[in-house]
Amino acid sequence: MFDLVNGLPIHPLVVHGVVVLLPLAVLGTIAIAVRPAWRLTYGGLVVACAAVATALLPIATSSGEALEKHVGDPGEHAELGDQLIWFAIPLLVLTLALVVLERRKAAGKPAVGPSALPMAVAGLAVVAALAAGVQVYRVGDSGARAAWGDQVASSTGD
C-alpha cells in the first residue's frame, strides 16, 4: 500500500515529515516544560506536531518495508526506525498531559493529583523529548549511511 507515488518511493517523502515534525515537537516540548507561560499559547501547536509525527511513523515504517523490497535490507536503520514509535508515543502523551494540566489550571478547575504533578510531568516530558531527539538522530544517521554510505565512500577514494 505504501510503496510508490508517481513512480517514486513514498518512504523518503513521509520520512521528511517525521524528520521535521518530531524534532520540532522535541524542541517545543522542552520549551513549554521550561517556560510554563508558553504552555497555553504554544502547547496546542507542540501537541499537534507530536501527534502528526507519531501518526506518520507507521506510514514511514510500512513504506520503508516496501522500499526494502526494491533496494535491499537497510540493516540497523530498519530496527531503529521500528523503535522510534516507542519514543514518540511517550513524548506525545506527556506533552499532551502538560498542556491539559495547564489548561485546567487556567480555567480555574481543581488541580488533579498532588501539587507537584505539573513539575513532575514537565520533567518526564523533557526526558522523553531528549530520548526522542536522540533516537530521531540515530534513525536518520543510520538511514543516511544505508542510502549514501557506499556512494560517498567510493567517490572520496576510501
UniProtKB/TrEMBL annotation:
Entries under InterPro entries matching the protein: DUF2231_TM
Coiled coil: none
Keywords: Membrane, Transmembrane, Transmembrane helix
Regions that span the bilayer: 13-34, 41-64, 84-101, 113-137
Pfam families, per the entry: DUF2231
Superkingdom per UniProt: Bacteria
Every DUF2231 domain range: 7-154
Name assigned to this protein: DUF2231 domain-containing protein
